[in-house]
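re: ur msg from earlier - yeah i can do the FE3-S4 cluster complex, just paste it... oh wait u already did. ok heres what im feeding in:
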Amino acid sequence: MKLPAFILPKPNMLKTVYIETYGCQMNMADSEVVASILNKNGFKLCKDINDADIILINTCSIRENAEKKVWGRLKSISHLKKKKNGLIIGLIGCMAERLKEKVIEADHLIDIVAGPDTYRELPSMISDASGGHRSVNVLLSLEETYGDIMPVRTDPGGVSAFISIMRGCNNMCAYCVVPYVRGAERSRDPESILREASKLFEAGYKEVTLLGQNVNSYFWDSGNKKVNFAQLLERTALIDPLLRVRFSTSHPKDLSDDLLHTMAGYENICRHIHLPAQSGSNRILQLMNRGYTRESYMERIKAIRSILPECAVSTDMITGFCTETDADHEESLALMEWAEFDFSYMFRYSERPGTKAARKLKDDVPEEVKKKRLDEIIALQNKLSARSKRKDIGRIFEVLIEGFSKRSDNYLSGRTSQNKVAVFPVKDKKAGEYASVRIEICTSATLLGTIV
Ligand code: SAH
Ligand code: SF4
Ligand code: F3S
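and the outut:
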């Protein structure tokens, strides 16, 4: 029977979407933007993939393994397509951008391929796909920041939220795919960032993390108004002393004293800087096109230690970049030992097609050597992390409580300003509140203490 037009449901009405996210914090934030765009267009979000009419996989391309994971996941959900007539599967994000139409050639079950700057088009792409037309849109934009979109939080009533303050990257590190899949760097209007942070605080959130591939180069210029990252950070901190502010990632070549002094001026700006070194060897840093030397990196660490003595520092390291020798590797180990990083993310170099390293340099370090070097830096970091936690024993830290500990509802878990996880017995406090906790012992990953 044909329904009269006025009672026909809107085509997207009540269609259910499931979003799954891979990759970095920025991708997590993007999924919340996608959720918001789809919500506004009459779609409903669901938490169980089996309930979905539309499955969107938000993907990462940073290393080959990140992509392998997504291909594996697509394979494992392919049976759903047979089970549910008309099910739409979309690949969105960085891998969609990198592979473009090739995604559909590689996997015939995919109906939508949407790059990171095309999320506003998703409702119409879904309509096309519902009509049986595959849809690919991977246009990158010089302006899109989704600044006007209030993301839908996946954890309403949560304690901590991410806010994207910029998109893209202009740095062109030789190994990195990000500039190709995320496009040129652009900063978001500070007023929209501050509005979002204030709304989150009003909704009960107690911590925001300002996100960008290189937050230090955040710069808003609208002619008569100019705002740099230190100023944005200060204004975010001024929203309320009870709102903690974090940020990631800082690039060593752009970390200014001005920013460190701003941090020092506000207790609610967390004492933690993620400052990826990637390597301790000047020759490798130059090949990587990182824009700093071992010495200037060390000088930045010294500045942090002198202006912010309580500040934790974490890093990213890559082993086995093109031409890396044992001597280069030893320099990485020595830098880590010298800097006494509190925490590190460590990776084996993975060649990404199209990057400068892939075009100009030979991926000549054998996999087993990359792996051996990675094992060595992981072992060293484990030692440094344990040392960093042992130093906290006997001291009192303000902890923002995030909820019960994973193991037991008799314990609460939260993080110190330095971003270390602390676990302690429940005592008249709950998630979203601050507690002063005396640290008594530590495990390899956690500080254990009691509320004082
Ligand atoms: N913008 C941030 C990092 C983004 S990617 C910065 O510049 O620090 C996160 C980390 O992934 C990088 O710091 C780097 O350590 C790692 N990474 C990026 N490309 C890689 C590659 N091709 N192989 C291995 N690790 C890589
Ligand atoms: Fe990649 Fe370098 Fe940009 Fe970080 S700064 S995203 S490593 S190109
Ligand atoms: Fe991955 Fe894209 Fe983030 S490549 S690391 S999801 S910006």
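cool cool. The pocket of S-adenosyl-L-homocysteine (ligand 1) is lined by residues 62-63, 175-176, 178, 213-214, 249, 251, 276, 278, 316, 318, 347, 349-350, 352 (CB under 6 Å). ping me if u need the other ligands too
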